Amino acid sequence: MQKSGKSWVSPWLSGSVPVLIVAAIPALIFVGVLLYFTGWALMFSFTNLELYGRKATEWSFVGLDNYERLFTRRGFLESLWTTLNFTFFSAIIGQSILGFTLAAVLRNMYGGVRSVLEVSLMLGWLLPDIVAAFLWSATTSKTGLVNQLIVIPLGMEPVNFLNDYALPVVILANIWKGTAWSYLLYSAALDNVSKEVVEAAKVDGANAWQRTRRVILPIIKPHIGTNLLFITIWTFTYFPLIYALTGGGPGSKTEVLSIFLYKQSFGIGKLGYGSAISVAMLVIVGVMSLFYLRLLKEPE
After folding, report:
1. 260 neighbors 76 (Cβ within 8 angstroms)
2. What are the subcellular locations of this protein (predicted)?
């Protein structure tokens, strides 16, 4: 905006430029460090660098060999498919829908039941991943709670769920672990929905589903997009709970990209190939983030 041929600047901003510059220094340093390590990963993805051996010090550039290997050898595409399934069912379907449902149901509920449910949600979120993995491993083992309370009383043989249904167990564990975030975000979003608007829709004859779909969801759309953005990124790159629970097994049934990257980089020491995997993951996450950001953009 210009006025009398001169650029208009807020007096507050013009008097605080030195303060703003100083305040921006930590952020600039943080961004610089991120770009520094990203640049090294990108460079190493074009090399045959290894963790140990001769190529740990005498590495050389191999062009696009590592990226070609991603699509011509077994491992990457299988892990990508596993990661997409894990992300879709545990984050987009599981955490988001369950978090919204709980937020909507508990919105007008008070007393002990709500407190118990909220404490249970927060407990899963706050527990360290290694502890959560131990609990789920013990619960789904042949002598665990699921077999003792459900399978054996029904007259069936005990099931080793982590061996026979590894990916569903990991998905359920991650839903239990991460739903609290979606619940808290959707609870705050629903609290900002005007009760007068909802009551007006009710007076107009809209049932509960119609009020949710046509009134509430459009109002909290930015919150939905923000939640999906964060939980998709977190889940797509998630490592600790899965590795502690299954180690990517049995076989490669739960070998998501983060575990595949870890095994290639530090298991067999192929740092160059691991760098290519990390760059590919960065690109995929970037594309998904742009998709969500487009959803968040208000139509002109």
Report:
1. yes
2. Cell membrane
At 160, phi and psi to the nearest 5? Answer: -90, 90
Token digits of residue 258: 């983060």
Would you state the pLDDT for residue 11?
A: 55
- Cα–Cα distance for residue pair 166/149, rounded to 1 Å: 20
* H or E stretch at 217: helix 217-219
Residue with tokens 């290519």: 276
Position 138, amino acid: A
Q: What is the pLDDT of residues 268-292, one digit of tens each?
A: 999 999 999 999 999 999 998 888 8
**pTM value > 0.85:** yes
Q: Which residues pair with 6 in a beta bridge?
A: 3
pLDDT tens profile 38-71: 899 899 999 999 999 899 989 999 999 999 999 9
How far is it, in rounded angstroms, from Cα 19 to Cα 96?
A: 40
Evaluate the omega torsion of the peptide bond into residue 250 and state whether it is cis, within 30 degrees of 0. Answer: yes
To which H or E segment does residue 287 belong?
helix 271-296
